[in-house]
Amino acid sequence: MLEKFSGLLLKFNFYNILVILLALACTPSIDKSPYKELRELAFETEYDDIGVQNTNDKTVVYGIIMDWPTQREIVTLATFLSGDASLFLTSGASFIGGGGRESIQKSSIRFIHKYAYLWKQGKKVRWTPNPDLEQVRFFFLTTQGTYYLEDTVGEIDADTSTLTPIFDEAQAVISEIRIEAEKEKDDEDE
User: Fold this and answer.
1) In sequence order, what are the beta bridge partners of 37?
2) Percentage of residues in the chain having pLDDT higher than 90
3) Cα–Cα distance between 44 and 14 in angstroms, integer?
4) Could you tell me which of 124, 163, 131 has the C-alpha nearest to residue 146?
5) Average pLDDT, stretch 121-145?
6) What domain of life does the UniProt record list for this protein's source (predicted)?
7) Residue ranges per structural domain of the chain
8) By the 8 A CB rule, do 108 and 79 touch?
9) C-alpha to C-alpha distance for 82 and 46, rounded to whole angstroms
């Protein structure tokens, strides 16, 4: 068997072996969680996608995305000016498109209106950094690009961060999503 395998290797040149190795390295991940893909889709959402008009050509914050590391996983909250709000967890659990529920829609829009001004304090990003296990990050999707602010989990938990108020408001949106998800589950159980 070893001789047969060695003979086959001799028939392939270096480039063929390289192509085979690259193909094996590029095979889909066995990770079945949709978290990464859903998070990427949230960041790829553009202003024109949400169906809100900008009549004054000013910079508009049309979405705020929060990455929040908990003890067990990363939670990403994606909110949009249309009222849509989604929640993605690295465990694979998700709640998508809450804008069809009035309580979530109002909470999401209030969140963005209340904290949109913070984009001016943020750092502009050309690509989206991966979530960090020590940092809570807020990304502001604007018509001029994506900006972000961050602080440590410890500072936010200790209520010593300037980002604690926006974090608390994000928790209010998450609470609305949880309430609606529980209602949906109760309806399915009946």
Assistant:
1) none
2) 56
3) 39
4) 124
5) 93
6) Bacteria
7) 35-189
8) yes
9) 12
